[in-house]
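Friendly challenge for the regulars: who can give me the structure tokens for this chain first? No prize, just bragging rights.
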Amino acid sequence: MSTARTYLDFERSIAELDSKIDELRAMNGPQGLDVSDEIAQLQAKAKKQLQNIYAKLGPWEKTQVARHPNRPHFKDYVAGLITDFTPLAGDRNFGDDQALLGGLGKLGGQSVVIMGHEKGHDTKTRLHHNFGMANPEGYRKAVRLMELAENFGMPVISLVDTAGAYPGRGAEERGQAEAIARSIDKGLSLRVPFISVITGEGGSGGAVAIACADCVHILEHSIYSVISPEGCASILWRDATKAQDAAKAMKITANDLIRLGVVDKIIKEPVGGAHRDRAKTIKTVGATITSALKTYAPLDAETLVAKRHEKFLNIGRSLLER
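First reply, four minutes later:
Bragging rights claimed.
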């Protein structure tokens, strides 16, 4: 996988410093100038600037970070956390959707079912995975995986990262809304522990379909919303360029969501976002999931379902009170 640095618009000052550091490194060496002190000074300056920038990110900047192409995706998390992974394909009805992947494996020695959106990491894989936008067969696959987990008493883990369910004509003809509704229903009625993490974008019903969990975590710079900022701006103002205004109004950041009770916990990201230290991010997400599973493992099926229903009903009640 390519690890080339990609800078966002608000990171231009960091890009300039990193460029200078690269130039000095090229000069440094046994046969060149000793510029190690200058490199260290620039690195310290870049680190401080990065901390300052990321401490003040607004909703639109966080949206850009959540969409960063180098953030860890589903396959990265599986490779870093899951052993003995066996992918399962198809919905036993129409076909296999590569935007929503899943299978069986072990997390810290415990058998689990894990599923999530995969966006891909370059042009070829992004097209192959349809940019993480699942079709109905993807959500029917999710239901199949949840049913399998229930039958064998295995907890379910979902990793959410999608701009939304695929809105194409074929998807609608094959019952996109019905497939999402059935996936939501299955998640709410699942009789085993169900842990979900918003790792990037949590867009619309395409995200909720696999996030009706006992515990919904969100990475610090991820977003979770009923529609994309661009889509909201197009509807409210008939102008997609007002996406920044929409992002602010929609309360889509992790801090907003925790205050509203929509998510349960914020997972801290490395300074500068998950894409700057993917290994650390994956390890932190794994530890958070493991801790959550220990919390819910002692609960019987009836208690799990009752508490999950109450959790989502309380979101609506608390929002109405506001």
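The longest helix spans residues 301-321. The two ends are 45 Å apart (CA to CA). Your move, everyone else.
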